[in-house]
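STRUCTURE:
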């Protein structure tokens, strides 16, 4: 099983980024996919989740209206489009796949929002 995140970068406040997560080694279309983040000194927190068919999503209050999660089951990919980034969005962003007792994590990608 592999989850490989990419797209993290240093960006100015108000900027945009799109994170990608490439999945392999499991039946991607059956899994709920999520993005989590962890800032220095803080606990890992859920950012957004998308369910297996892609028809249902939810997101954390701090990112609502700014971040959008999507998935492409044909490509085994999940994305996080982030706009109007704020310094408080600075964190390592992790991709997660979950189905019943199966719970997989990527290695993370750094997003830094700073002028």
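SEQUENCE:
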């Amino acid at each position: 099983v592999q989850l490989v995140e990419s797209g993290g970068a240093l960006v100015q406040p108000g900027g945009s980024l799109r994170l990608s997560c490439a999945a392999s080694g499991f039946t991607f279309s059956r899994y709920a996919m999520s993005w989590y983040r962890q800032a220095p000194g803080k606990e890992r927190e859920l950012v957004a989740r998308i369910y297996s068919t892609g028809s249902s999503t939810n997101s954390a209050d701090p990112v609502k209206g700014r971040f959008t999660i999507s998935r492409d089951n044909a490509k085994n990919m999940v994305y996080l489009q982030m706009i109007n980034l704020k310094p408080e969005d600075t964190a390592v962003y992790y991709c997660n796949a979950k189905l019943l007792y199966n719970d997989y994590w990527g290695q993370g990608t750094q997003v830094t929002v700073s002028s």
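REMARK: The first strand starts at residue 2 and ends at 6.
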